[in-house]
Amino acid sequence: MAVWDVAARPEREQFGYWHEVICRAFVPLTPRRADRAAPGFAARVETRPLQQVVRAHIASQPQATLHGPAEVARTDGAFYFLNLQVTGRCRVRQGRADAVVGPGEFTVVDTTEPYRFDFDAPWRMVSYRLPHELLDGRRLRPRLGRRWDGRGAGGVVSAMIGALWEVDDADPAGAELEHALAAAVTAAAASEAQAPPAELLRVAVLRYVHGRLGDPALSVAAVCRRFAVSPRTLHAAFAGSGDTFAATVRRLRLERAAALLADPADTRTVTEIGASVGFVDPASFSRAFRRAHGCAPTDVRGAARTAQVPRTD
Fold first, then answer.
1. Quick check: 257 and 274 in contact, CB under 8 A?
2. Regarding beta strands 90-94 and 115-119, do their DSSP bridges make them parallel or antiparallel, or are they unpaired?
3. Domain of 71: which CATH number?
4. Are residues 243 and 259 in the same domain?
5. For each of the chain's 313 residues, which pLDDT tens digit applies?
């Protein structure tokens, strides 16, 4: 067992230590705090190894946590994380999946691919790290990054997560219990393989939107025509995701803009990059970017170009 109590460090060191803790306890991750002006960052992680599974209880503050391409490249091993939300909410994004997970619900992510967690309030989570070979990846893949509720087969998984937390790491039944958990997750994935129509529509719309972020005419009306649905049906499909359709499009555009601005190989101007993701008005782009990322697009662009300049010392 290992325990890391971030609050025991001086306030000025706490967030940096939190970054170190989550990388040591889990896999390479990059946290971004929601409130940069806050004096400290109280958080705690407790891990308990079993046999192949590593269990963790996490309590922390509002933040975004990224496992991007660079972190994936530094990850030693291939794992799934089975995360049960205890308090607070977590927005989970992996691949095309985008879900909001609340208390009593869980999600599964794959460390061999990028993912992102966003927490908008203090939160607690129980997280189990399972090696790839323990789970049926073929059945699990369609459910990665999605919300699993605590009913039916999902309820069995939630109950097992809680029960396994109390099992001693020296228990001779540890390996059998791990396989029982893996079997429950696989069964739950099979039972939820047929997604409800609203979720299927949302996934299809997101796929369509990703390919058209640069189109200023991308709108509710345009998407409704493309999918032959009413605006009410479209809005209902996004109601469970935590964001409206319009807010989702804006977020995706700004995320793509941030990636392009941070790429020193992209020689376009800030205005051109804004236009490439659907912002025809530079002032509107700048305001929206600042609200989303806490800095101006020119700041990100300048940092990327500075990083590209070779050192002469």
1. yes
2. antiparallel
3. 2.60.120.10
4. yes
5. 899 999 999 999 999 999 999 999 999 999 999 887 788 999 999 999 999 999 999 999 999 999 999 999 999 999 999 999 999 999 999 998 999 999 999 999 999 999 999 999 999 999 999 999 999 888 898 899 999 887 778 888 999 998 899 998 888 888 889 999 999 998 888 876 555 678 778 888 888 898 899 999 999 999 998 888 899 999 988 887 778 999 999 999 999 999 999 988 888 999 999 999 999 999 999 999 999 989 999 998 888 777 665 544 4
Burial class (CB in 10 A: 0-12, 13-18, 19+), 197: exposed
258 within domain boundaries: yes
The SS3 assignment for 112 reads: coil
The domain boundary, picked from 160, 191, 222, lies at: 191
Which residues are registered as beta bridge partners of 48? 55
Q: Which of 220, 221, 226, 275 is nearest to 249 (CA)?
A: 220
Residue 288 belongs to some domain of the structure:
yes
Give the H/E segment covering residue 3.
strand 2-5
CA 180 vs CA 136, 146, 172, 193, 243: distances in Å: 13, 22, 14, 20, 36
Domain containing 160 equals 2-191
CA dist 226 and 56 (Å) reads 44
Residue 51 near residue 175, CB atoms below 8 Å: yes
| Sign of the C-alpha dihedral computed for residues 292, 295, 296 and 302 taken in this order | negative
Residues 128 and 210 in one domain: no
Distance CA 76, CA 16 (A): 22
Q: How far is CA 98 from CA 5, 163, 238, in A?
A: 31, 28, 10
- What is the phi/psi pair of residue 78, to 5°? -120, 120
Domain count across the chain: 2
Strand-pairing partners, residue 131, are 79
